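User: Show me sequence and structure for the first protein, then do the same for the second.

Assistant: Starting with the first protein.
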Amino acid sequence: MPVVRLLAGGRNAFIMTKGGENYNNEEKNEFQFRLWVSFCTCPHWLWQTSYYWRIIEPKGHKALYIMFSDPTKNIEHLFLNKGDKVADLGAGSGFYTIASAKIVGPSGRVYAVDVQKDLLDRIKMNATHEHLSNVEILWGNIEKLGGTRLRDASVDCVIASNVLFQIEDKAQFPQEIKRILKAGGKVMIIDWSDSFGMGPSPDKVFRRADAVGLFEKDGFTFDKDFSAGEHHYGLIMRRK
């Protein structure tokens, strides 16, 4: 079995492949097992920030396996329109940023906010590669009131994918989202529903009911649930 190597990692990307010849069924099963082992033994920061993973074959071969869910499908639940302003908080590798930018078009704007400058640089590079001039990167702290550095009531929608379980002081997070959202604006929340050996430790999982309660406490109303994968929940909350 050729050595498995990590190609890219981040909140939304965990892409691995092997060198050499094509897979057969026996190799595929072993490779998936090795992915599980690699994921469970990888550095804490990596599993803590991974969400969307793909196993791919070398150069142009068909993808073997996709775990969890596709950000492009999740984002459909926001019903974004041309010209919308979107904030992707804890943007990571920027899958939601890029997907949103393509939908809102040149008249819209997507703000990718993250505390890791290297990830922001990658997002900007990817946006340039996709010829998207409507992406703005912001180095900020999403856990603090005013930390996103966005103006009050400046965005129509907020995306918060796989960040809730990482935040230590959760009380200020919905307050900051409420500050930057326009009245009637929506926030899409996606987070781990369980640990199952690959996700965060059980004590770090922030349950769906707790997420709803956290946002309702700051004046948000529940809009809907949606399927975000076997081990994640997805929900939409709306600012009054």
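Switching to the second protein now.
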Amino acid sequence: MQYAETSGHIFEMTRHIMRQTLVDVGNLYSKNPDLKLSVNLFAGHFEDRRIIEDLIEIYGDSRISYSQIVRQVTERQPLRDMNMARKIIAEMQSLGIRVALDDAGTGHGGLAYLQKLGIDIIKIDKMFVDTLWTEVSSSSIVDMLVELAGKLGMGIIAEGVEMMEQIGRLRELGVTSAQIGRHIRAEIHLCTAPARPSLCPACRSADQRRGLRRQRRTRAR
């Protein structure tokens, strides 16, 4: 990936991936408007309008609508021109495309990206999800990201969820969406749906605990 980015091949690779999504899942997405399609972009994509032109050319009159598309800003390399990046992100959002900060807290940018870029979604990196029980700092970081997303009006997604126990713990911390590992049974997706917590005992328990915490806060005031 680093070679593709430094050599410039990443631009044609990204265009190819976007075109291929129409072939592979175009019909599926046209029949399921709630599905989202995410593709990572790197710092170079935010230096000029080529990515906007590519998005319009490929998806402008396709079976995948702009509202189904999520572009992910990675932190592998720093953004060299924050003002230009903000303009490009704003233009994506004007089309109906949402923009996520991928692997939040693990690379360049961090809070500066959240402050300056107008990000729609924070994605919690898998390394924090994997260590929720073994490192106290992981729970604290997830808790902080959830609170920050709520205050900034952003969505939040946990990446790489692979165990039932993680679903319950993430819901306790206020996370309601997750990217599920492929080897987990499909019904675990239901546990991440905030509108239907009754489908899972762990989710019901988490909701009850959150209710008790809210009651304590109210009494404390």
